[in-house]
Amino acid sequence: MTFLSIFISTLMAFGLGDIVDVLESDEVESALNVAESFHHASREISEVEEYYVGRSVAATVLNMYTPLEDPAMQQYVNLIGQAVATSSPKPTLFGGYHFLVVNSSDINAIACPGGLILISSGLIDITSNEDELAAILAHEVAHVTLQHGISSIDQARWTEFGSLVAEESTERWGSSELQSAANNYGDIVEDVVSNIITKGYSRESEYQADSLAAVICASAGYDPRAMSSVLQSMSSIDSRSGPGFWQTHPSPEDRLASINTVISTLPQIEIDPVRTARFNEYISGSVSVPGSTGTGGRGSGSTGGTSTPTTPGTRG
After folding, report:
1. N or C: which end of the chain has fewer CB within 10 A?
2. pTM (2 d.p.)
């Protein structure tokens, strides 16, 4: 999908289809309505705009990764993700929270603006129970809650984009004008993708997300110490090359030193063996969505069996 097609679909989703209509219509009034919608372009990005920028970011990221073909695992991760998101300081978003497992050995998770969260099967591989998986998802929810992704957009670039749309929409748009706006929008999306995947957030942002994740876990009934244990698992990995976590995050050792202070102030919740058993069932691929075929398990292409997934809760 090109940035031009993403741009056009995003304008339509914004309810700004008038911009596209101007290509085929001389109705100046419609164009002026579009200009009016952008006359506050210098303001902060709204929740609706954040969601649609996030959709474009996710579309770009999914050019790099393939979704894991395991319906039961996808549903399981979403149910856990919804549980921790509901317990976050920002439980509702314009488009809601959505979680997707991608089939990759990379140790990585990506929180797109607006609540679209991707987690690699490789990162799930290093977890040993549901609480640790919940801690990882809570960390990504924390990034969304704290708006770390959307805040990486340069305000001047966003203002330039809004001004361009407002200016060009007052006249009949041609292909060159539309392409120019699409390129500008594409630059915004690329900035966010670069900050999330290549550069990573600042050390302070990662520490903030870790701390909030521990609080979210405790609020959701998961053991906040799982945040620490999953970081310990990461610290035991000798090979730290390649894309993802190692390029974009502070070392697990540094994060552990920071998070343990926060965890010590939170209630200690014993890990429920029922949750761990449920986790093992999904990881092994013994649970599937009715109608799916094949064999499941971590990193596999599909699931098998006929049992119906159970709904994760805070207590089994």
Report:
1. N
2. 0.74
